[in-house]
Design goal:
Blueprint lengths: L2 E5 L4 E5 L47 H11 L12 H30 L6
Antiparallel strand pairs: 1-2
Subcellular location: Mitochondrion inner membrane
Family: Belongs to the cytochrome c oxidase VIIa family.
Keywords: Membrane, Mitochondrion, Mitochondrion inner membrane, Transmembrane, Transmembrane helix
Length: 122
């Protein structure tokens, strides 16, 4: 079975008689100029701080305004989340639905004109 070797000068594979492993890259020797940096323990090393035992729970301090918003939006009252913010949310949802509708109409117009070969007016 012939083996192939990449010729970087011509950029092609050439047949060779050398037995080669199936892995195409040649191994590179370890660079000995710079040894790897090792971290050693010293007198300046401090032990890690251990938290309280498992029975003690720490609670984060959350802003009361944020807690009120959490309660407002998580309340199961049947109102969709995107409308619970009040009138501004209704305006934003309406604007979003309107832009989506305009985009769909323009897409349908594009498909119709392209399918029927109608020229675009400038």
């Amino acid at each position: 079975m012939p083996f192939h070797q990449f010729n970087p000068f011509t950029g092609r594979l050439k047949q060779t008689n050398h037995l080669q492993p199936l892995y195409p890259l040649a191994p590179h020797p370890l660079e000995k100029a710079e040894p790897p940096k090792m971290l050693w323990d010293s007198m300046l090393t401090k032990p890690a701080k251990v938290g309280p035992s498992v029975g003690v729970a720490r609670f984060s301090k959350v802003d009361p305004k944020l807690l009120a918003k959490y309660k407002k939006f998580q309340e199961p009252n049947g109102i969709p989340v995107y409308l619970k913010g009040g009138p501004m949310d209704k305006v934003l949802v309406g604007l979003t639905f309107g832009l989506i509708a305009v985009g769909l109409v323009q897409f349908a117009e594009f498909v119709y004109k392209e399918a029927n070969g109608i020229k675009w007016e400038k």
